[in-house]
Amino acid sequence: MSGTEKKLAERRAFNRATPDAGALAQGIRAGVRTALARGITLVESSRPDHQKVAQALLAELLPETGKAIRLGLSGAPGVGKSTFTEAFGQFLTGRGHKVAVLAIDPSSARTGGSILGDKTRMELLARDPNAFIRPSPSGGTLGGVARRTREAMLLTEAAGYDVIMIETVGVGQSETAVADMVDMFVLLLSPGGGDELQGIKRGIMELADLIVVNKADGDLIPAARRAQMEYKTALHLMRPKSAAWQPHVLLASALKGEGLSEVWEAAQSHHEALSGAGELTRLRAAQARAWMWTEIREGLLGALKADPKAAKLLPELEREVAEGLTTPTAAARRLLDLVVGGQKGA
């Protein structure tokens, strides 16, 4: 079979309604971008037949995952996440790295659709042959992180991308969600001095392995330096996440491409420090266990909602709870007793 015929055969396999896991895995290993995109679409699908193939695909590719540096990027809207991600991604590809960006877009509360604007905002990086950008709708998932982001991350690693960046919507608890799936959590902030520091929740600061004060250019340089000192002081008053790493506070200007090498040096130093102390292995193992329990909880909830006995009882329980005739705990126990046969009065 010639090279052209082989490519055509692979393309036909990718275009089937239900893809073949083996052919898809072969394409992903070979770095075929359409195969990777199709694989991520597959793991994001809610169709049972697609999920069956997706899990077979992940099982086949799992031994080839785990070699990338996983970075989470978050920050309030307007801080310049997409600009920073594009500039940092281009810096890394210029150094010979293959970069995958999994950008989580907010979903519409009414339609469930997403804006999917990150690929448009990162136009230069999207055209880079050594970069792969995948915008995914959050789907209303708690924390604004797409439910299948973890699996998409594994697929990009199997495709040979050695730096994975997950950019969140930066709302509410998205920081906690993304911190639970990456090696290093990077918090992007704008120059704001004391006023900005007062507005940052302590819990978010405690999650950060690295704080980057973005937009440190022009007239904002003095404010950025003041903010840097205040964030450093604040971090020293908090217990670090790891005994092997003290969080850094760096200045950067994504617009001018300044400070990016320092950010990458910090990411490498963090990875080496955690690896040397054995903490990276323990961190990823703990994340995998937490991921499993998340899947168990979501699977049980889905099964509960699909149970015909539960569907019949739920409206009555919701009405009784809303009218104050019973407590939410008692209502939940009645439902669980009915479906899973729990002990009465437990």
Kindly name the structural category: alpha/beta
CATH class of the largest domain: Alpha Beta
What's the CATH architecture of the largest domain?
Answer: 3-Layer(aba) Sandwich
Tell me about the largest β-sheet: 7 strands, parallel
State the distance separating the first and last CA atoms. Answer: 66 Å
Catalytic activity: GTP + H2O = GDP + phosphate + H(+)
Keywords: GTP-binding, Hydrolase, Nucleotide-binding
Protein name: LAO/AO transport system ATPase
GO molecular function, one term: GTP binding
Task: Name its key features.
16 helices, 346 residues, GTP-binding, globular, P-loop_NTPase, alpha/beta, disordered C terminus, Helix Hairpins, Single alpha-helices involved in coiled-coils or other helix-helix interfaces, 3 domains, hydrolase, seven-stranded parallel beta sheet, Rossmann fold, GTP binding
Task: Describe the structure in your own words.
By secondary structure, the protein is of the alpha/beta class. The chain folds into three domains: 3-62, Single alpha-helices involved in coiled-coils or other helix-helix interfaces (Up-down Bundle); 66-276, P-loop containing nucleotide triphosphate hydrolases (Rossmann fold, 3-Layer(aba) Sandwich), CATH 3.40.50.300; 288-340, Helix Hairpins. It is 54% helix and 11% strand. It has a seven-stranded parallel sheet with strand order 3-2-4-1-5-6-7, sandwiched between helices. β6, α12 (221-236) and β7 form a beta-alpha-beta unit. α3 packs across α4 (48-61). The longest helix has 28 residues, at 279-306. It starts with a helix and ends in a 6-residue tail after the last helix.
